[in-house]
Amino acid sequence: MTMKNSILMVYAVIVILSACSQQTMSFEGISEHWHVNVTVVQNGGQIENDIVMTYVGEKHEPITKIMYEFEGPMSQIGGEPQVNEEGIVHVEHTLNSKVFSEDMIVTIKWNGQEESFPLVKK
User: Fold this and answer.
1) Above 70 in pLDDT, residue 14?
2) Collapsing DSSP states into helix, strand and coil, what is residue 33?
3) Which residue in 105, 79, 104, 98 sits closest to 90, CA to CA?
């Protein structure tokens, strides 16, 4: 094997190993009416965010849709998903950049109400 081939082989192994490395972080936030869990999986250049928001307040009137926003020092993400019959919202995002950090605040709006609370790294 020539020196050039050896260098290419080492480079290929480094690229493969770095692409295979996976890092997982979890965050949680709890308010009077909501419990939020976020799992962030960084796999190479892709970042997958799995968000579960569960309504834990009193079940007086049905919640069919919410507005949510996660806001941090350098990023924000949000949406208006449907809520299932059990009061659970499950959202998945695949991004090319990191959104979640230890300084995130989540705001949820539903049925004329609004709550904001911090996410804490587990």
Assistant:
1) no
2) coil
3) 79
**Which two structure tokens, joined as six digits, stand for 42?**
């960084």
Whether the predicted model's global pTM rises above the 0.85 cut: no
pLDDT in tens, 61-103: 789 889 999 988 877 889 999 999 899 999 998 876 666 677 7
Contacts 24+ apart (CB under 8 A), 63-68: 63/87, 63/110, 63/111, 65/110, 66/108, 66/109, 66/110, 67/108, 67/109, 67/110, 68/106, 68/107, 68/108, 68/109
Q: Which two tokens stand for residue 46?
A: 């892709």
The pLDDT of residue 45 is: 76
- Count other C-beta atoms under 10 Å from residue 39's C-beta: 17
